[in-house]
Design goal:
about 200 residues, alpha+beta, five-stranded antiparallel β-sheet, 4 helices
Length: about 200
């Protein structure tokens, strides 16, 4: 009886591990997921995203900006396990620490240079200074950032994700713009409530 129980426990753990290793966007059983019936039959327009046209012929922004093409903005991506973002970094701007819980990120620097990095589950920091033409991968779910440390030149990057909806959790906002009790945060960060409230005030704008 004990040997059978041991066998079934091993089988359960193995199946769970296999499921975790294959986790990602669910596979679809059709070529693509069509639009709702009330929109009619899909045409080439359904598979075309024009949201990035706003990048053409317009001045570079004065603050950090992200233009996304996920299944939210581009419904034809549903079931395709891919999405894009264009990241615009004016000089001296940062994409603050954040995570993408459902996808790894492949960042390609198109213009300028970026200081990038991520922290693994042992709290080890991996950093690199990227130049035009460089590519860097941020593993799925890990906290990471990008920073344009150039005081005079902007930077432009394209990010590809292994999910149609990678999600973004911004660490400063998730912690200090949430409803987590101030006392809990003060104890967690080994500081006082007044400091926590000051941090919250600075992030509320």
């Amino acid at each position: 009886m004990a040997s059978k129980l041991h066998f079934f426990l091993l089988l359960t753990v193995s199946c769970a591990s296999l499921h975790m290793s294959m986790a990602g966007d669910p596979d679809i059983l059709t070529d693509f997921i069509p639009p709702p019936a009330f929109l009619g039959a899909p045409s080439g327009n359904y598979f075309t995203f024009t949201g990035m046209r706003s990048l053409v012929g317009t001045p570079f922004p004065t603050t950090f900006e992200v233009l996304k093409a996920t299944m939210i903005e581009f419904p034809a991506l549903e079931g395709q396990s891919v999405s894009y973002s264009v990241l615009q970094f004016p000089n001296g701007t940062v994409n603050p620490p954040h995570t993408h819980p459902r996808a790894s990120e492949l960042l390609f620097v198109l213009m300028g240079s970026l200081q990038v990095g991520f922290v693994d589950t042992t709290n080890k920091l991996f950093t690199q200074t990227l130049q035009e033409g460089d590519i860097f991968v941020f593993p799925k779910g890990l906290v990471h950032f990008q920073f344009n440390g150039d005081a005079t030149s902007p930077a432009l990057a394209l990010s590809a994700f292994g999910s149609a909806n990678p999600g973004t959790v911004k660490v400063p906002s998730a912690v200090f713009n949430s409803t987590i009790d101030d006392q809990v945060l003060a104890l967690s960060f080994k500081t006082d409530v007044a400091t926590i409230q000051k941090l919250k005030s600075g992030l509320s704008g």
